[in-house]
Amino acid sequence: MGTNEDVFDGQPRGLPEPISRGRALYRPEPGPAIVRHLKGYAPFVDFCAAQGVRAGELAADPERLIWFLRRFGSPIADDSALSAAAAVFAGNTIAGLRPDAEWTAYEGAPSTVGNREKRFETDRLLEALRIADDAAVRGLVATLLDWAREEPDEAPPMRLPMSPAAGQPRYVRPDLPAATYYSRNGEPIPYGRQWEEDGPDPDSYSVDSHPERFAGLHDVARALIGHLTAVYDVDVQTDPAHARELLMERQDVRQAVKVTPRRPGAAALTFVLTGYPGVVVHAGVLHDFPFPVCGCDACDETVETTADRLERLVLSVAAGGYSERYPVGRKRWSEYALTAFDGSGSESGQGEPAPTSVARLHDAEIRLREAPGGWSPWPLLGS
Questions:
Q1: Is 52 within 8 Å of 24 (Cβ atoms)?
Q2: What is the pLDDT of residues 122-146, one digit of tens each?
Q3: Theoretical Cys-Cys bridge with 243: which of 206, 256, 319, 364, CB 3.0 to 4.6 Å?
Q4: Residues 6+ apart with CB under 8 A from 175
Q5: How many helices and strands (H and E) does the chain possess?
Q6: Distance (Å, rounded) from C-alpha 229 to C-alpha 167?
Q7: What's the pLDDT tens digit per position in 152-177?
Q8: What's the rounded Cα separation, in Å, for the pair 222 and 204?
Q9: Strands annotated E in 4-151
Q10: 0.85 cut: is pTM over it?
């Protein structure tokens, strides 16, 4: 009979569905199950027993576990099955340190465990422990224990967007130019499907071969502005000065358009078309969203998938699916949450605000107090 995997609370489960990187930022509804007790660590439990140590005692004492993994790093690394099991066991222990910690899987990348603020890649953790000196190990232990003691932040509010009104015009994406792009060797580049399971070529991270493939995003942005004007009661102003709405200054501004809904408590959108070519959208008061996020060959974005994300953001903000918070927690971070207008999923982000003036941060704090549950849906024309 095999070893029971009952060291941690709850039933052991498999990894959640991988989150796609570079193609979709939205989780499919109702979202992957939260996994805090990952299965697959039985060989490590047997290894602990062979060393005269109870695995449950290590799970309850992360400091002791770290030093155990350090001591036996070489024999663990020599056995691939044991190494994988030890990584799972370490991750489950880390997940048990905080109520908001969980396992996350990413498409084409190692799984991690942690919360929104800090995540740990346990495979690398084991390798680092094997070669680290005692001072580095003590530093890791201190980091884990400090993280475990921090108070969890309240989850951001997730707004439910309004359904389209009867007879409301639907947004239609303009035709995007089709083109074939070639490498320096004259071979066609299959953007969006360049890389296999091994991931991108390391040299591709510094290469931006054909940024011109994103030129169609300007047409998409203009079509979205036209749609917003046709459906909602808004004020539209085209003025390069509106590029100053962005928190991060851009030197290659080609056009800036601010669309402001005529309803208190609804978030304005500022579209900045750049010479890259690309689009940056400032939504609400403290968040900029660039399209593309990165045009390098490694990220492998296409104009189609980038247009998908641009449209989701804009239409979801107008439908009332967007919220912001500032300041959040003792670190006074800014945060946003977005629920897709079509019910396809949601996303959120948190971190230090982009560099800006104290006055602007103070103004954002005041304005967001007036929208504690999130920004309101935009008013429809004639309503």
A1: no
A2: 988 999 998 889 999 999 999 999 9
A3: 256
A4: none
A5: 10, 11
A6: 16
A7: 666 666 666 777 777 788 899 999 98
A8: 31
A9: 102-106, 109-114, 119-120
A10: no
